[in-house]
Specification:
Blueprint: E1 5-7, H1 11-24, E2 28-33, H2 40-44, E3 47-52, H3 63-73, E4 77-79, H4 89-97, E5 101-102, H5 107-114, H6 116-125, H7 140-150, E6 154-162, E7 165-170, H8 176-191, E8 196-200, E9 206-214, E10 220-232, E11 235-241, H9 248-264, E12 269-277, E13 283-289, H10 296-303, H11 307-315, E14 332-339, E15 341-342, E16 348-349, E17 352-353, E18 356-358, E19 365-369, E20 376-377, E21 384-392, H12 395-408, E22 410-412, H13 418-425, H14 428-432, H15 439-453
Parallel strand pairs: 1-2, 1-4, 2-3, 4-5
Antiparallel strand pairs: 6-7, 6-8, 9-10, 9-12, 10-11, 11-14, 12-13, 14-21, 15-16, 17-20, 18-22, 19-21
Helix pairs in contact: 4-5, 12-13
This protein binds adenosine-5'-diphosphate.
């Protein structure tokens, strides 16, 4: 096992990884920016080092500072968390070149999946279903031809895109060229790669993703699916496991497909294969996230498997602790991402000091967070305060528990998305579980109508 693990991240995910290391008995090294000196991950780690100023580019993305901290502190492994360097093939390779184990897949697997157009080509060659689409666009006429044949709407996507950025929906041919140009410009600006391609845009599918674990010895298992259809601007708000739309037969089919996806790139580590599921239960590979995901905790709740612990074990060369036959999914779990944002003002970020904080608790309630009373939320990073997860034997019980926990949660001093979730969890469509990725738009429309009637 590793002697010491450096966590190249901040916030709740740094705390999550430190907790797993502590349970295994591995000392940890936290790194932090000047703006994060008071963050919980700094005080929970065995050692902590400031690696740069507030700007991520000079701290959490500063490879020389991170690598030298690992070498000086004697860390023999680096956990990248999610975001920041977690999907950087170059960083994974630089770690290896310095004799430090990157806790994640190989640079080559990250590269194969990180480029969406390339990942689609790989899947096509392995007979994994993908949405109809093009390769990289270099010719507007070829693009027009595809769209005419597939039918509008289509979606133009940056091949290097992520986090809901670099995507444009196009409804008619006269909007196509302009959107390709805009998408290319954005892609260059955000991802330093102007490559874009086109996919058929499915109208209101479900976003279903499968958690997989793959070790060095060729074992690959799936831990069931998560339904992440409730999104705002293509970013997830509420996740649940299992999906209310997936039965045992489809679950097995999705799971086995996800395992084939992982094997196609000789994947090693924990990962998530994302699919779109249509109304007729057809599913299409969308992308693979080659890292730990924000919403991994709800899968832990229904599978009783500590995904971060497995991830560390895999990186250390140990075999998976479970085989597919051992995996039994039990009950239902829901997660709400609580952000420091004002839902009444179009989710505007609300940085500042949390002057009062009481987290909910009780049976089946889990709060993963790095904040506490008196903590000041820096304005430089993402606005997540915590992940509130609830587990119960059935979906309805988990939903009611979530409502209870949301009502119990006190966060004062900054605006939060708590009131938004309190309403959403009680929504009749959410209660029925019959939503898709068009949920939020429909929900907002219904809310507006209700307000008009009042
Ligand atoms: P990112 O890498 O930025 O997360 P994804 O490719 O995973 O982007 O897509 C994010 C979301 O965008 C999906 O969950 C889905 O809601 C929507 N989406 C993406 N591609 C399509 C498509 N072809 N048809 C319909 N919706 C799509």
């Amino acid at each position: 096992m590793f002697k010491k693990v450096l966590i190249a991240n901040r916030g709740e995910v740094a705390v999550r990884v430190i907790r797993a290391c502590r349970e295994i008995g591995i000392p940890t090294v936290a790194v932090y920016s000047e703006a994060d000196a008071d963050s919980l991950h700094v005080s929970l780690a065995t050692e902590a080092y400031c690696i740069g100023p507030k700007e991520s580019s000079k701290s959490y993305l500063n490879i020389p500072a991170i690598i030298s901290t690992a070498l000086i502190s004697g860390a023999d492994a680096i956990h990248p968390g999610y975001g920041f360097m977690s999907e950087s093939a170059a960083f994974a390779e630089i770690c290896e070149q310095h004799g430090i184990k990157f806790i994640g897949p190989s640079g080559s697997a990250i590269r194969k999946m990180g480029d969406k157009a390339q990942a689609r080509a790989t899947m096509l060659s392995k007979d994994i279903p993908i949405t109809p689409g093009t390769g990289l666009i270099d010719n507007i006429n070829a693009a027009k031809k595809f769209c005419k044949k597939a039918g509008y709407p289509v979606i133009v996507k940056a091949t290097a895109g992520g986090g809901g950025k670099g995507m444009r929906i196009v409804n008619a041919e006269n909007e196509l060229e302009e959107n390709i140009v805009l998408c290319k410009t954005e892609a260059q600006k955000f991802f330093g790669n102007s490559g874009v391609y086109i996919e058929k845009y499915l109208v209101n599918p479900r976003h279903i993703e499968v958690q997989i674990l793959a070790d060095r010895h060729g074992n690959v298992v799936y831990l069931g699916e998560r339904d992440c259809s409730i999104q705002r601007r293509h970013q997830k708000l509420v996740e649940e496991a299992p999906s209310p739309a997936v039965n045992d037969k489809i679950r097995e089919k999705l799971g086995k497909t996800a395992v084939r996806v992982a094997k196609a790139v000789k994947y090693e580590g924990v990962g998530t294969v994302e699919f779109l599921l249509d109304k007729n239960n057809n599913f299409y590979f969308m992308e693979m996230n080659t890292r730990l995901q924000v919403e991994h905790g709800i899968t832990e709740l229904i599978s009783s498997i500590d995904i971060v612990r497995e991830q560390i074990n895999i990186a250390a060369g140990l075999p998976l602790s479970v085989s597919q036959r051992d995996i039994v999914l039990k009950g239902h779990a829901i997660e709400c991402r609580i952000n420091a944002e004002n839902p009444a003002k179009n989710f505007m970020p609300s940085a500042g000091v949390i002057n009062g904080y009481v987290a909910p608790g009780g049976f089946g309630v889990r709060v993963d967070s790095h904040v506490y009373s008196g903590y000041s939320i820096p304005p430089y990073y993402d606005s997540m305060i915590s992940k509130l997860m609830c587990w119960a034997p059935t979906r309805e019980e988990a939903r009611r528990r979530m409502y209870r926990a949301l009502k119990e949660y006190v966060i004062t001093g900054v605006e939060t998305t708590l009131p938004f979730y309190q309403d959403l969890i009680e929504d009749e469509v959410f209660i029925k579980g019959v939503f898709d990725t068009g949920f939020l738009e429909d929900y907002n429309r219904r809310k507006e109508e209700q307000n008009k009637d009042k």
